[in-house]
Design a protein that fits this description.
The chain has 522 residues and is α/β, with parallel strands linked by helices. It has two domains: 282 residues, 3-Layer(aba) Sandwich (Rossmann fold); 170 residues, no CATH class. It contains 13 helices and 17 strands. The strands form five sheets. Strands 1-4-5-7-6-8-9-12-13 form a nine-stranded mixed beta sheet, sandwiched between helices. A two-stranded antiparallel sheet has the order 2-3. Helix 3 packs across helix 4. The longest helix has 27 residues. 48% of the residues are buried. Bound molecules: calcium ion (CA). The site of calcium ion has 8 residues, from loops.
Length: 522
């Protein structure tokens, strides 16, 4: 009897001992996470949120509550001022998926955390170390600039993983990162600079060639349309341009559907729209034609060097097209201008009185050009164009990159350039020339910046990535849908570059089953 009693109690005793010896492996109640002792990290709030309605925190959030599964909400800050939240679902799928930011960040991406949370992922986001309330956040604050440029996502990731370990008593089986635009830049930052943070990364429309994007696109477009007031294109003329592009190029891919399958094949000449008898609503004036040409051709110096590739023709129309990014409702209101000028004014030139008209792409004798000045000052901390992804690949990393083929903000050609640079680098010294074993680029025909446009813009990259990392299922194609009023009216496969979707010649062109991913026809 005595022996039985001892053997009955032994496992309990051992469990208690294990708990005492390895405290990191023990689960902790949500509320107790505020006392978690992590170097350089302060947890300010840890609260259990029940299943049901939840009002998203933060400025700009819709006051209407969203429906959430039960989770533990943890709010914290990594020194000096990198604010972050990590949400820990009660029904955890044993994985972690962090989400990125947009624009110049400055807010935690609460809404983007909802999808992973609903799917059972522990999820995290950071404001990247500053708040977007003041345009001047960077002025005199180099630490904020560095945190925003590359440090914040990394230190958030470390803090998130420590909180996950403490709450569940286990590390995530897999860790993923997803972001578009600035979030795509963050995604490629992680792959290049912190290759052991994530085994799976989704980089959408990435702003990874940061200094050249800000000078060679945001500033270039602003100068092209606003330096001379006569070159400004009113929003009312965008539909005219879009229609002319479609009539010249839509049928080049064999399907008249308002989508250019590969807009690089479209060589539309804007001068065909030149007004013949003075300015009119259905034509472009000579300065407007010149502005459109500059936008399509992209920034070049007078000796022909490309600073950043141009916007491709197609999908100019619509609320996420040129009306938002290139013209705006009036001069000074374009997306390129709103995003680019504050960064150049306060971070690059650190001069509140800086005027975009004074920027020169040309080298003055004996001096650097303004492009070189911005490069030298900010390139090393902001740019992520390093083609060496060996450490990420060696860590088992899988990278899915996608880019709207008609992105009017960040040219998709930049994504192609980066992808090709990686392919070239990785094939050196007899290395692997087919990088598609760990890195795939999906160009999305007819998609604008991260979303919107006439193309199939709804797709699930999270599932594709998870199946690739978790089950070794290679994404040979990703089915994308086009929705009208919430209903799917067209599906198409997205294909890993350089493959593209080819119609088989039979069946509906609105059904992905009638397409194959194939090499482009010569
Ligand atoms: Ca077409």
């Amino acid at each position: 009897m005595a022996h039985r009693a001892i053997s009955h109690f032994l496992p309990v005793f051992l469990l208690a001992l294990v708990g005492a010896v390895i405290p990191a492996a023990a689960q902790q109640p949500c509320e107790s996470l505020t006392s978690l002792d992590l170097p350089g990290v302060k947890i300010t709030l840890a609260a259990a949120v029940p299943t049901g309605p939840f009002v998203l925190p933060g400025p700009g959030s819709n006051a209407d509550p969203v429906t959430v599964p039960a989770f533990c909400r943890v709010v914290g800050v990594v020194k000096p001022e990198v604010n972050f939240e990590v949400w820990l679902p009660v029904n955890w799928n044993k994985k972690f998926l962090a989400v990125g930011n947009g624009g110049l960040a400055g807010n935690i991406s609460y809404r983007a955390m909802l999808v992973p949370l609903e799917r059972g992922y522990a999820t995290g986001s950071t404001d990247t170390g500053h708040t977007a309330k003041e345009e001047t956040w960077a002025l005199g604050h180099m630490q904020r600039v560095i945190d925003f440029a590359h440090r914040a996502i990394h230190v958030m990731t470390q803090a998130d993983k420590a909180v996950i370990q403490a709450f569940y008593g286990a590390a995530p089986a897999h860790s993923y990162f997803q972001g578009c635009s600035q979030g795509g830049q963050e995604a490629l930052t992680e792959a290049q600079r912190y290759p052991r943070d994530y085994e799976g990364i989704i980089a959408g429309d990435p702003a990874n060639y940061w200094t050249h994007l800000y000078t060679g696109a945001h500033l270039w477009v602003t100068q092209a349309t606003q330096k001379d007031p006569a070159s400004y294109i009113p929003t009312s003329k965008i539909a005219v341009l879009a229609e002319a592009v479609n009539s010249a190029c839509d049928a080049l891919d064999g399907i008249k559907d308002g989508i250019l399958n590969d807009p690089r094949r479209c060589h539309f000449d804007p001068s065909t729209l030149l007004c013949k008898n003075g300015d009119a609503p259905n034509c472009l004036s000579a300065p407007q034609v010149e502005a459109v040409n500059k936008i399509y051709q992209g920034a070049r110096t007078s000796d022909g060097r490309q600073v950043f590739p141009g916007i491709l023709p197609g999908a100019e129309d619509g609320p996420g097209g040129w009306a938002f990014w290139i013209t705006g409702s009036e001069p000074g209101k374009a997306g390129h201008t709103n995003l680019g000028m504050p960064f150049l004014r306060y971070v690059a030139f650190e001069d509140p009185a800086w005027d975009f008209r004074t920027f020169s792409f040309e080298q003055k004798p004996g001096f650097d050009s303004d492009v070189e000045f911005v490069d030298n000052k900010l390139g090393p901390i902001f740019n992520n164009i390093n083609p060496d992804l060996r450490a990420f690949q060696a860590n088992g990393g899988k990278l899915i990159q996608y880019h709207g083929f008609n992105d009017p903000d960040i040219s998709p050609l930049n994504s192609i350039n980066y992808y090709q640079s990686v392919a070239e680098f990785m094939s050196r010294d007899g290395g692997q020339s087919d990088i598609r074993s760990f890195y795939r680029l999906f160009l999305v025909p007819g998609m604008q910046h991260c979303t919107g446009g006439p193309g199939p813009t709804h797709f699930d990259m999270i599932d594709a990535l998870d199946q690739w990392v978790g089950q070794g299922k290679v994404p040979e194609q990703i089915i994308a849908s086009h929705l009208t009023k919430g209903a799917v009216d067209r599906t198409r496969p997205l294909c890993p570059y350089p493959l593209e979707a080819h119609w088989k010649g039979n069946g509906s062109t609105d059904d992905a089953q009638n397409f194959v991913c194939a090499a482009p026809s010569p």
